[in-house]
Amino acid sequence: xxxxxxxxxxxxxxxxxxxxxxxxxxxxxxxxxxxxxxxxxxxxxxxxxxxxxxxxxxxxxxxxxxxxxxxxxxxxxxxxxxxxxxxxxxxxxxxxxxxxxxxxxxxxxxxxxxxxxxxxxxxxxxxxxxxxxxxxxxxxxxxxxxxxxxxxxxxxxx
Length: 158
Known about the structure:
Elements lengths: L2 E5 L5 H14 L8 H6 L4 H8 L4 E8 L2 E10 L4 E9 L8 H16 L4 E6 L4 H10 L1 E3 L10 E5 L2
Parallel strand pairs: 4-5
Antiparallel strand pairs: 1-2, 2-3, 3-4, 5-7, 6-7
């Protein structure tokens, strides 16, 4: 299976929306958003980011035969930190290292756009598969006193 990892293009925002809604419906415990509420949202902020190709906010996709099978978003903060959000791979493609390919593509792109940037993410405590993937990729847990949520904060170390 040949996987292509790349930045989503403006005309792919609807494909992003479909896979994002799928992720919220199938794995509600893994994300900080609600599927039913998301259905009511006319356009997600990240859809606008995809359509407008923001330097500091981008989404990579994993494609098989030009079909979107995975997504991962990156948002740069005002400082030298960037956050990974919405990592998801469709069920039939999970367990094939596609998630690690997406994460690595996002990290590489972030480092090429922003020299010296720190990459962080959050994972829900019960999402063991994602937690172990991130650990395998080089992320380590960090203590974040500002984080009022119960998520685990992880930072990427090269």
